[in-house]
Amino acid sequence: MIVRSRAPLRIGLAGGGTDVSPYSDVYGGCILNATINMYAYTTIETRDDGRVYFEASDIEKCYQSEAVSQLTLDADLILHKAIYNRIVRDFNQNKPLSLSVTTYSDAPPGSGLGSSSTMVVSILAAYRELLKLPLGEYDLAHLAFEIEREDCKLSGGKQDQYAATFGGVNFMEFDKERVLVNPLRIRTDILNELESQILLFFTGVSRDSGKIIDDQIRAASNSKDDKSLEALHKVKQHAFEMKECLLRKDIEGMSNILKRSWAAKKGTSDSISNSYIETISILALENGAKSLKLSGAGGGGFMMLFVEPKQKLKLMKLLSQHASNGQVNQFQFTQIGVQAWTV
Fold this sequence. Notes:
Order of helices and strands: EHEEEHEHHHEEHEHHHHEEHEE
Distance between the termini: 8 Å
Strand content: 15-25%
Structural class: alpha+beta
Helix content: 40-55%
Number of strands: 12
Number of helices: 11
Shape: globular
């Protein structure tokens, strides 16, 4: 039997970082994000030789062993192993599964588009299809979160798992007990104009978000760190303001909020920006960009820029020429979350 799945990556428009505990537990977090037509893909094939085989073809990593109830979470492909362990333990009566899992993503790890969490959602959805598991959207997203944050002990927030599962433009609210996903019904003409004014540029630098997230965790935990905590409060407020501008088709207002939000975001950790990022930022702002920010935790990955559409092509060429290993990515918004199907 063969099943496949794909889950969409997302861009964070506002509120990033406020979905990370303990900030979200204590103060409540808010995120505005939107999924795009870049995906994490999974294929699962059942086997009859009593073995498991995992391959992440985009990063050229693979793992194989006998099909056992629990795989050791070490070395490469920890997420693939942890997902297998959870599925076997919670949904297959601890009986091993003999199968091959092959994955790849349209964005590299550390991209800032939620690629790791989106991959977890994609793999889980494939297992759900394979085993006909009774998992709704909230169930699937929460399970993906638990596998990353609890089973694998990886630092991070909650937005990516829910964005990949639900798809579309969503305003999300987080607290200690629950996550609430509010789908926003945005007119097509508004989304078209937003697409025309946003440029996605891969800086050529993949980053480990762990240190940045750890800095934000310390800020939320330390009452003496007033500056960083106040910056997180501003980031959250910008999510509300950005949502209102989006609903009113105030793209210029969204651009202005993005500028303020990026300044506040940089105040939450010294690792969010660096000299290379600042050099690219200056170049962009001097050549047609109105505002910008790094997607995700920061430190590298994808940069999202608001630019006058008539200046877009010029800026695309300039960034491609001057940023080492940089790459402009065309995209469209998608309203559909994770999908899985049997071949």
